[in-house]
């Protein structure tokens, strides 16, 4: 056939082959030969999931089944068991639907400001403005890493084991013993504690209002600080306040014991808790059985050493006549009469009384280190609660 003398050649038909299924691909891969392939390319070919199109036309537009919660950090909408598929938010002018998201934080409980400039790292810079005080500032939460320069350079010595901080903590206990041996009265020490507390608290308050001063402060005293105190208040403030309270409000022996338990039991609990706490049950967040047991044993030894050796060997000193514990313990008269005991039978002395007093001191030291009262700093709660526990016990059985 021809048109005007020219033969007509039919057009080549276009054949479209359907895409092979995953099973056909695997069969072809087994039957055909491919060139050398790297392990990473082969791993990607085997582990790459095949795209599966879902036909959602049969699903009701008003009622759909519950789906698993999305892992996307952007979409935070909660899908219930039976929810409507209709959008609840109106699209804005650009055609997109606004999505509510959680406020961004800088990792320390402070919201990231929209005007904060990025420093090129994963952690946004800390706002330099003072965000206000809250009860959470008392909390002794686990210390982060990266805020104080010396903690980055001395991660084990300063950050992990807190050797300079613990050395200062323990040395105050020996300083209290030296004051006792020099015959100093507890009430005469309180004005000096308050004179140190007021300026230290003022400086700590000022550094939270001025970021340059705060950076200078942590460079000078960073070895004695926890990194959680970069945005919070310094533990020295609560240490001085706790020592002042127990020395001012309680008799001499109770005040001295409360300060010694703060200095030595708290350090022992922190040291052994960090070393062996992972091998023992956790009593509460940040507190383990190993740390509480260490505080108990050190408290027992401190009380036995103070009342059993230091006081009778080195004393008496002025003010010792007002000690609450003088080597004897007795049941209350009402309780003794109820069980039919005489005054002599209801009284114990010597090593038995000292042993009971030492065990009780270790118990109140461990309990005060373990308990959490509104998240307050343990430098304040340990001496106050220990003093209250020892004073109350002696009020009943002395």
UniProtKB/TrEMBL annotation:
One of its GO terms (molecular function) is ATP-dependent diacylglycerol kinase activity. The chain crosses the membrane at residues 163-181, 256-277, 289-310, 380-397. InterPro entries: Dgk1-like (IPR037997). Residues 1-123 are annotated as: Disordered. Keywords: Membrane, Transmembrane, Transmembrane helix. One of its GO terms (cellular component) is endoplasmic reticulum membrane. Coiled coil: none annotated. PANTHER family: CTP-DEPENDENT DIACYLGLYCEROL KINASE 1 (PTHR31303). This is Phosphatidate cytidylyltransferase. The lineage of its organism: Eukaryota, Fungi, Dikarya, Ascomycota, Pezizomycotina.
């Amino acid at each position: 056939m021809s048109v005007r003398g020219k033969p007509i050649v039919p057009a080549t038909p276009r054949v479209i082959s359907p895409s092979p299924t995953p099973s056909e691909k695997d069969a072809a891969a087994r039957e055909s030969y491919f060139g050398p392939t790297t392990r990473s390319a082969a791993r990607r070919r085997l582990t790459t999931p095949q795209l599966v199109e879902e036909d959602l036309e049969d699903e009701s537009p008003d009622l759909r089944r519950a789906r698993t919660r999305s892992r996307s950090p952007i979409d935070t909408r909660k899908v219930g068991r039976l929810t409507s598929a209709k959008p609840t938010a109106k699209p804005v002018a650009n055609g997109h639907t606004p999505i509510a998201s959680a406020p961004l934080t800088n990792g320390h409980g402070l919201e990231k400001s929209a005007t904060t400039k990025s420093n090129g790292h994963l952690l946004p810079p800390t706002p330099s403005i003072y965000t206000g005080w809250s009860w959470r500032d008392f909390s002794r939460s686990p210390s982060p890493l990266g805020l104080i320069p010396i903690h980055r350079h001395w991660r084990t010595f300063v950050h992990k084991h807190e050797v300079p901080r613990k050395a200062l903590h323990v040395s105050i206990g020996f300083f209290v013993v030296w004051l006792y041996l020099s015959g100093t009265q507890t009430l005469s020490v309180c004005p000096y504690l308050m004179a140190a507390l007021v300026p230290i608290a003022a400086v700590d308050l000022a550094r939270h209002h001025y970021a340059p001063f705060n950076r200078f402060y942590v460079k000078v005293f960073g070895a004695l600080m926890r990194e959680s105190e970069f945005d919070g208040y310094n533990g020295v403030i609560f240490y001085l306040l706790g020592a002042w309270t127990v020395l001012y409000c309680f008799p001499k022996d109770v005040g001295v014991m409360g300060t010694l338990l703060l200095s030595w039991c708290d350090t022992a609990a922190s040291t052994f808790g960090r070393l062996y706490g992972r091998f023992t049950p956790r009593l509460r967040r940040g507190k383990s059985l190993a740390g509480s047991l260490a505080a108990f044993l050190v408290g027992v030894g401190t009380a036995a050493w103070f009342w059993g050796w230091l006081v009778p060997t080195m004393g008496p000193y002025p003010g010792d006549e007002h000690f609450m514990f003088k080597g004897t313990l007795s049941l209350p008269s009402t309780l003794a009469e109820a069980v039919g005991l005489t005054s002599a039978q209801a009284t114990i002395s010597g090593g038995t009384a000292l042993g009971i007093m030492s065990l009780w001191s270790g118990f109140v030291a461990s309990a005060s280190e373990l308990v959490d009262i509104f998240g307050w700093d343990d430098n304040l709660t340990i001496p106050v609660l220990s003093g209250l526990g020892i004073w109350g016990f002696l009020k009943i059985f002395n």
